[in-house]
Amino acid sequence: MTKTTKVQDIVNIFESWVPKKLAYDWDNVGIQVGSLQQSVKKVMVTLDVLENVVDEAIEQKVDLIIAHHPLLFKSLKQINLDQTSGRIIEKLIKNDITVYAAHTNLDIVSGGVNDILTDKLSISNTEVLVEDELEKLYKLIVYVPKESSEQLKDALGNAGAGHIGLYSHCMFTTDGEGSFKPLEGSKPFLGSQGVVERVDEVKVETIIAHSKLSEVLSAMQDNHPYEEVAYDLIPLANKGKPIGAGRIGSLISEITLREFCENIKSVLEIPSLRVTGDLNQKVKRIAVLGGSGKAFIEHAKRKGADVYITGDMTFHEAQDAWQMGLNVVDPGHYIEKVMKQAVKSFLDSKCENAGIEVVISREITDPFQFL
């Protein structure tokens, strides 16, 4: 009998990449409307949860919407069905559609919105623009029969364990002897109940970043032959990678600000943008912060950016950047739509054997038109 997939199952998969803990305290991520216990056969990915998107989800018989921008951001004081916000909630509940949001955590996470934007714009050698903390690191020590050790090591490395600088699958092994006595009710891979078994084992040691912890431990359990896995997980004092908003890096070679702006429009498929500075100036070092990043102009300048790309730039902040010699490009907030394909691709890769269909919303949620 096929196991029914629940919202909770999809959330667990998604949060193995985009954990909620990365979101800022002021943000509202996770379940917005619905139930974690609801059955899921079809998932829709969207930037925003507007009424046209909900109507699209109803028409396509979607069970779960995963959005970047939270449907519920400010506290609700009423649900008035005569207003748009009330109608959206009513339609979701009546049609058994659960809504889940990943906002600043999807901006911050490795491979998230800002990394997608830098990849599309060919910005390389990137680092975090606004550092909030250093990722926690752990040492995993696991004991495995010698003949199963290579399979386990490969699985751990493929799940993200053993990353040190530009190297992956970094592990240390020690040969030894393990012993155990299977008790009543056990189903041992080796040995018999009531008899002490001695086995040639390997102790495998590796390092794990906190963001990969769930995925690595899951891979360990799935690829270990024992019914009960013996392992240690030890927090380390070593400093992990910086975690935070935005990215900064460099183009392959200098180009004019005008040429770079034209490239932004082409790659991100936008009709126009706003820009400050001398369009003939040569630029190379680029900072990017998807969404609204006017509060981080100083960070971009301090890290040596020639150009700062962000949305929702207001007059006085743009003026401040202009006066300090930092070129600002405002391509709008809607460029965050790049998250849709990335989330779909991730879920497709993880749910390919679960019979889950993942679709992208085709509805336009950008309120602006350009004349």
Automatic annotation (TrEMBL):
GO CC list: cytoplasm
Residues that, per the record, bind a divalent metal cation: 68-69, 107, 333, 336
InterPro entries the UniProt entry points to: DUF34/NIF3, DUF34/NIF3_bac, DUF34/NIF3_sf, N-reg_PII/ATP_PRibTrfase_C
TM helices/strands, residue ranges: none
Entries under SUPFAM superfamilies matching the protein: NIF3 (NGG1p interacting factor 3)-like
Keyword terms: Metal-binding
GO MF entries: metal ion binding
Family annotation (Pfam families): DUF34_NIF3
Residues annotated as signal peptide: none
Entry's family note: Belongs to the GTP cyclohydrolase I type 2/NIF3 family.
NCBIfam families reported in the protein's UniProt record: YbgI_SA1388
Stated name of the protein: GTP cyclohydrolase 1 type 2 homolog
